[in-house]
Amino acid sequence: xxxxxxxxxxxxxxxxxxxxxxxxxxxxxxxxxxxxxxxxxxxxxxxxxxxxxxxxxxxxxxxxxxxxxxxxxxxxxxxxxxxxxxxxxxxxxxxxxxxxxxxxxxxxxxxxxxxxxxxxxxxxxxxxxxxxxxxxxxxxxxxxxxxxxxxxxxxxxxxxxxxxxxxxxxxxxxxxxxxxxxxxxxxxxxxxxxxxxxxxxxxxxxxxxxxxxxxxxxxxxxxxxxxxxxxxxxxxxxxxxxxxxxx
Length: 247
Fold this sequence. Notes:
TIM Barrel; 9 helices; alpha/beta; single chain; globular; five-stranded parallel sheet
């Protein structure tokens, strides 16, 4: 695709309401919108897009049935859809992938997926997947950066001037902690839902929070980027003839 377009997304990951409110506030202060991939009920983010973030891991807390994989997938998506019936997009927890998921997503009325991570790759764009699902691939994820140390958590490391679609994903707890190493997240797991404890352990220096803030400040200085659902709609309108299976 010509040019560069940054799309903001947040993987809620069962964050405490105060931790989630911190991220929402940073966006709202700058009049920026994001797509929130929701893991549980009660996520209220007015002005933003809500999408699904189902957990398909066998030990996950959303496992509802035994039996065939597709039956399990269907039950998980059905439960999440009941919580957020307006959702048109999905990103799987842990970026879980199985080709059987596509027809499940399509049957549930979902239209786009954003679970393929192609980190810092130029020239990304939407791709038709089949079963009526459009892939909006991930360009950057803060959790990936903790392990890879690819950007130094500096804005220049995101290579935003390279061409292509840039779907970026942040996690509320990583932003709240300003995490920059895997151990910063791992050591906080036992107190994941204790915002006061987490705040006392927020790191100084560069990390997920400083990068998030620098990115928001850059985007706030230009045209407000769309949410993922709007890009999905735009591409469906422009490419329907080339994607006869699109819903």
